[in-house]
């Protein structure tokens, strides 16, 4: 199966006929010196008349505060077309394909000393303070050789179980400014971005684990485990090492959880590349976690509940040339919730 990725794919795609057609960009970053970072997402669902706009900032303790906090905003602004990712105060600007992207946000965030309150978003948005927020970040990549993915030349999803017709990712460097209330940071960090388009149901995977990490410009990785309710699903990812992309065809993940809600807390993983005949071990410890949810009714009128737990994570490389070095990134755990529990606890 071939995969196509052209500079034109860095821009918007023609709006498909599917009612759940989604075009989205996501990006994360973390400044290790200041211990501040976050992620941003815009998903256009023009045929449904709205966009999904998310801003999530992981913040160090303020003066006098006992611990870290999360600044968060989610909106569904009205849209009528798929011409741009620009709604709800969040704007994405593609400057140079494969090399430079800009993200700007002006608006409010709710401040969460206990981010797990977002498991009940109505209460979280009602019972916590807000702050004015302004973000201006420029993300730079290392050109097409550092890109992973694209659009397959043959369909690879079962009708009704679509998640993305095309999808690609890239490790990036971030610089710019973030302001929350009267606190401001000049950001110098690293992260990962992705872009996807096509029909999407958040209920399509049974569960997935998506891990992103940067040590520096010479080393980072992405690990992906997607499980289907019926069938083996997929395992893979990539390692970027000293200017070379290693495509991985296997990943093994073991997770330690905490609390009655069984949020992920510690991670052990191993990425393997049969093409490179290499493997890389890593471990992770979640620093900040915020649980998000998506609900959809099935044809019988039953509500399907999906939990997406977003953990800013401190990673340690456990093998290879960069063994012992520390990096940062996201661990995103999506689970369908059945009888009150996440379905992917075994992994």
How would you describe what is shown here?
- The chain starts with a strand and ends in a 5-residue tail after the last strand.
- It folds into 2 domains: 20-201, AttH-like fold (Beta Barrel), CATH 2.40.370; 205-347.
- Helices cover 2% and strands 61% of the residues.
- The chain is built from 1 helix and 22 strands.
- It has 347 residues and is mainly beta.
Report the CATH architecture of the largest domain.
Beta Barrel
Give the fraction of residues assigned to helices: under 10%
Task: Specify the overall morphology.
Answer: globular
Q: Which sheet architecture does the biggest sheet show?
A: 10 strands, antiparallel
How many distinct beta strands? 22
